[in-house]
Write a structure and sequence with these properties.
- 23% of the residues lie in helices and 53% in strands.
- The chain has 126 residues and is an alpha+beta fold.
- It has one domain (2-125): Roll (Pnp Oxidase, Chain A), CATH 2.30.110.
- The chain has a six-stranded antiparallel beta barrel with strand order 1-3-4-7-6-5.
- The longest helix has 19 residues, at 107-125.
- The chain is globular.
- It holds the Pfam family YwpF.
Length: 126
């Protein structure tokens, strides 16, 4: 396993046909490449408790969550992951959120998929 410092966390969702990026201010965080057969990563975000309701709702929804993260340095290019939330835990006056997921190798392919989904969703509403 390889462990890295999590420097940025952005949740990417679709709302009313638009892609919305929700930047989550980090207090601290880690990202672990488990180097297993399924290429799974574990992401831990240590954040303010004011975010607890938002993340508990995402946990209850049990949907896949797209993340963009920066690893090690804020100057690095963001990596995109398809994840699910394992747990939301109180730690003192703050919380941690544990995600598990896989890295999306090509940023262009995910942007194309998102665009296709948005277009398909838009067409289905007509």
């Amino acid at each position: 396993m390889k462990t890295f410092k999590l420097k940025m966390l952005t949740i990417i969702t679709q709302e009313n046909g638009n892609i919305v990026q929700n930047n989550i201010p980090l207090l601290n965080g880690l990202i672990i490449n488990r180097e297993d057969d399924t290429n799974r990563w574990l992401i831990e975000a240590y954040i303010k408790k004011t975010n607890e309701a938002y993340f508990n709702q995402l946990l209850e929804d049990k949907k896949e969550i797209m993340l963009q993260v920066k690893i090690t340095k804020e100057s690095n290019e963001p990596a995109t992951f398809i994840t699910s939330i394992l747990s939301v835990n109180e730690i003192g006056e703050n919380i941690n959120v544990l995600f598990t997921g896989t890295i999306v190798e090509r940023k262009e392919s995910i942007l194309k998929e998102l665009t296709d989904l948005l277009e398909a969703g838009y067409r289905d509403k007509d």
